[in-house]
Amino acid sequence: MLTLALDTSNIPLSVAVIADQQPIAQIQTACAKNHSTTLMPAIDQALKLAQTSIQSIDRFVVTLGPGSYTGVRIAVTTAKTLAWTLAKPLYAISSLAALTTPWALATQEQVVVPLIDARRDCFFTGFYQWQQSHVSAVRPDVYLSAAQIVTAIKQLAQEKVILAGSLTSEQEEFFRQALPTKQLQIASGLAAQPLAGNFNLLVAETNLVSDLNALVPNYLRPTEAEANWLKAHPDAPKTNYVEEV
């Protein structure tokens, strides 16, 4: 089975072709570029490196968010279009769960806390545990301030905590100082990035998208346009006013 996996939910771009459980080609970038212009060339290059074609892909896997509003939409829209055009199944996974795959061999005593910078000292985050190559969410993905994340980590029974995701040196120092009693490990290098070649580890039947038209990104918070509209119209019903995909 050939899988094409995509992620553009944040600054990194990751595209991989996976044969069964083995990644055979992967394109990875970690610089601030326009994913709308780089994603399709990356897909084309990955397919060429894998010596296959888009028509030979059996299924697609895409990160659904949270993350950058624009970034999430790019991969989701591309994956939906490809799946619909080729009549192939699409699986949607959490962008936060995608950050935990480098830690698939972590023990049950360790909690992986993925972090995606959401600006203004806030993050998209979650709490995950890996056991026997299977990941489970300790709590749902959420949008929290750095201080709230520290409070949640302090409440964990586990002493060993892994922070996964690209953090600045200042952010790393904040968490180290705020969590002196925890055995804190902070990801670096490729272990701090979503690697599409690992996304098969996250795919389950519950991730299968049954209705492509109904699939929308998981933003975890209102878009800026929605927030501004609701601020200007405080008495309006709380309905989505922005088409998300």
Automatic annotation (TrEMBL):
One of its GO terms (molecular function) is tRNA N(6)-L-threonylcarbamoyladenine synthase activity. Keywords: Acyltransferase, Transferase. It is an enzyme of class 2 (transferase). Residues 31-178 form the Gcp-like domain. It comes from the Bacteria. Coiled coil: none annotated. Gene3D superfamilies: 3.30.420.40. Its EC number is 2.3.1.234. PANTHER family: TRNA N6-ADENOSINE THREONYLCARBAMOYLTRANSFERASE, TRNA THREONYLCARBAMOYLADENOSINE BIOSYNTHESIS PROTEIN TSAB. This is tRNA (Adenosine(37)-N6)-threonylcarbamoyltransferase complex dimerization subunit type 1 TsaB. It comes from Lapidilactobacillus gannanensis.
